[in-house]
C-alpha cells in the first residue's frame, strides 16, 4: 500500500527538485561572481553583519586557549626565575672570587714592590690561622725551619712592621703581633728624631709610648719608624701613627697612643725578613785601668825606669856638736835631712869621692834623735 500524506496538508515541490534548483542557482552565482565580480559588495556587507556573531561564537574557544597559555606561561616563568636565581648565585660567587683574587693580586704586587726596596733578603709567607689563646695576639705562618726561618726574625707587609717570630716549627712558625701586651719595639719619631719604645696593649689593637716626658716633641699625626737600635728590626720601617697625645701635669710622664700602620688584621700574605740588620763588629776587650788624677790620667802605660846604684859613702865618725842654742847636734847622713833649729839650715854633706860603680859597703841607718836636756 503506497503511503501518501493526508489531504489536510498542502504539498509543494519534491526534494529532488529543490536540490536541483538550488544547485543551479549556486552555479549561476559562482559564474557571475567569477566573471563579473558583482557579489563583492554583498559579501562585504554580509561579513560585516556576521562578524559580531562570529566573535561571540569563538569566545569559548579563545577562553580555553587563553587559560592554557596563562598556566603554561606561569610554569615557564617560574622555571626561568629559578634558573636565573641559580645563575645569579653562581655569578655572585665567581665575582667574589674574582674580587678576592684582584685584591690578593694587588696586595702581592705591593709586597713585591716593598720587597725590592728592602736592604735585606726576605721571604713571602701566608697566614694559616690565629692561635687559640685568647689572651695573646699571635698568628701562624706556613713557613718553618725547613724554609730557613729562625727565632727573632721580623715580619712586615707593604705598609710596615707586623710582628716578630717567637716560635718555630719544622713546617710552620708563630708570629707575635706588635699589639700583643708582651711585645715592645724601639721606635723613632720621623719628624723630630725622638727615640722611644712602643708597647702593645693587647686586644685594643693600639700601641703605647711609655715613659715619655710631658714636654716631648710629639704631635698627633707623627709617623713612628724603627730606630734599629735593637739589632732585630732594620732601621726605617714604618710602625705606627700617633693618634692621641696627653700631657699629665701631675705625673712625671705623658701618655701617647699610636695606631699601627701595617694591615695586621686584613692581609693574608706577609714578608719574613730573613737576614737581620748588619751590626758593627764589637771592639776588643780593653783591660780596666783605674782612673788617676792630674795630667797622668791619659798617659800611656810605661815600663818602670831602673834605679842607678848608689855610691858607697861611709858614715862620719864624729861626735855630735853643740848648737849655739844649746841643743845637741845630729851627725849628717847623706840623703837624709837633719832636723835643727828653726831658721837655720843643716850643714852640707861632704861630696862623694868614691867611684859611681862601687858597691854599697855600709847600710844607711836612721838618724839619731836630738838630745834634750
Q: How would you portray this structure in words?
A:
This protein has 373 residues and is α+β, with helices and mostly antiparallel strands. The chain is 27% helix and 19% strand. The chain is built from two helices and twelve strands. It has helices at 15-36, 40-117, and strands at 122-130, 138-141, 154-156, 161-168, 173-177, 184-189, 195-200, 207-212, 223-226, 238-246, 254-260, 269-273.
* Radius of gyration, whole Å: 61 Å
Q: What characterizes the major β-sheet? A: 6 strands, antiparallel, barrel
Which structural class do the helices and strands define? Answer: alpha+beta
Number of strands: 12
Distance, first to last CA: 222 Å
Shape: rod-shaped
Helix content: 25-40%
The topology string of helices and strands comes to HHEEEEEEEEEEEE
Low-confidence parts lasting 5 or more residues at pLDDT below 50?
Answer: 321-373
Q: Give average pLDDT, whole number.
A: 76
Overview features:
about 375 residues, alpha+beta, 6-stranded antiparallel barrel, 2 helices, 12 strands, about 20% strand, rod-shaped, disordered C terminus
Task: Give a short synopsis of this structure.
This protein is α+β, with helices and mostly antiparallel strands. It contains 2 helices and 12 strands. It has helices spanning 15-36, 40-117; strands at residues 122-130, 138-141, 154-156, 161-168, 173-177, 184-189, 195-200, 207-212, 223-226, 238-246, 254-260, 269-273.
Amino acid at each position: 500500500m503506497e503511503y501518501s500524506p493526508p489531504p489536510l496538508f498542502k504539498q509543494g515541490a519534491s526534494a529532488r527538485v529543490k536540490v536541483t534548483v538550488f544547485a543551479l542557482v549556486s552555479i549561476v552565482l559562482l559564474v557571475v561572481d567569477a566573471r563579473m565580480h558583482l557579489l563583492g559588495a554583498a559579501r562585504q556587507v554580509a561579513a560585516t553583519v556576521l562578524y559580531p556573531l562570529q566573535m561571540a561564537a569563538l569566545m569559548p574557544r579563545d577562553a580555553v586557549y587563553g587559560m592554557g597559555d596563562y598556566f603554561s606561561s606561569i610554569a615557564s616563568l617560574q622555571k626561568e626565575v629559578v634558573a636565573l636565581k641559580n645563575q645569579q648565585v653562581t655569578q655572585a660567587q665567581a665575582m667574589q672570587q674574582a674580587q678576592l683574587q684582584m685584591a690578593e693580586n694587588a696586595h702581592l704586587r705591593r709586597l713585591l714592590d716593598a720587597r725590592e726596596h728592602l736592604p735585606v733578603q726576605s721571604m713571602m709567607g701566608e697566614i694559616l690561622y690565629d692561635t687559640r689563646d685568647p689572651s695573646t695576639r699571635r698568628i701562624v705562618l706556613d713557613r718553618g725551619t725547613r724554609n730557613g726561618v729562625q727565632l727573632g726574625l721580623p715580619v712586615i707587609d707593604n705598609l710596615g712592621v707586623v710582628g716578630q717570630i717567637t716560635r718555630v716549627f719544622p713546617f710552620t712558625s708563630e708570629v707575635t703581633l706588635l699589639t700583643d701586651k708582651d711585645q715592645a719595639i724601639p721606635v723613632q719619631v720621623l719628624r723630630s728624631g725622638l727615640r722611644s719604645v712602643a708597647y702593645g696593649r693587647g686586644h685594643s689593637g693600639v700601641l703605647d709610648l711609655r715613659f715619655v716626658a710631658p714636654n716631648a716633641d710629639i704631635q698627633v699625626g707623627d709617623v713612628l719608624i724603627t730606630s734599629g737600635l735593637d739589632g732585630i728590626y732594620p732601621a726605617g720601617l714604618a710602625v705606627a701613627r700617633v693618634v692621641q697625645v696627653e700631657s699629665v701635669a701631675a705625673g712625671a710622664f705623658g701618655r701617647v697612643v699610636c695606631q699601627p700602620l701595617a694591615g695586621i688584621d686584613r692581609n693574608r700574605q706577609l714578608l719574613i725578613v730573613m737576614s737581620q740588620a748588619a751590626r758593627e763588629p764589637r771592639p776588643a776587650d780593653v783591660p780596666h785601668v783605674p782612673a788617676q788624677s792630674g795630667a797622668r790620667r791619659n798617659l800611656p802605660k810605661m815600663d818602670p825606669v831602673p834605679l842607678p846604684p848608689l855610691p858607697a859613702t861611709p858614715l862620719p865618725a864624729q861626735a855630735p856638736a853643740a848648737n849655739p842654742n844649746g841643743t845637741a847636734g845630729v851627725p849628717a847622713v847623706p840623703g837624709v835631712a837633719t832636723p835643727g833649729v828653726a831658721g837655720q839650715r843643716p850643714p852640707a854633706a861632704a861630696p862623694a869621692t868614691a867611684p859611681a860603680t862601687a858597691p854599697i859597703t855600709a847600710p844607711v841607718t836612721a838618724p839619731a834623735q836630738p838630745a834634750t836636756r
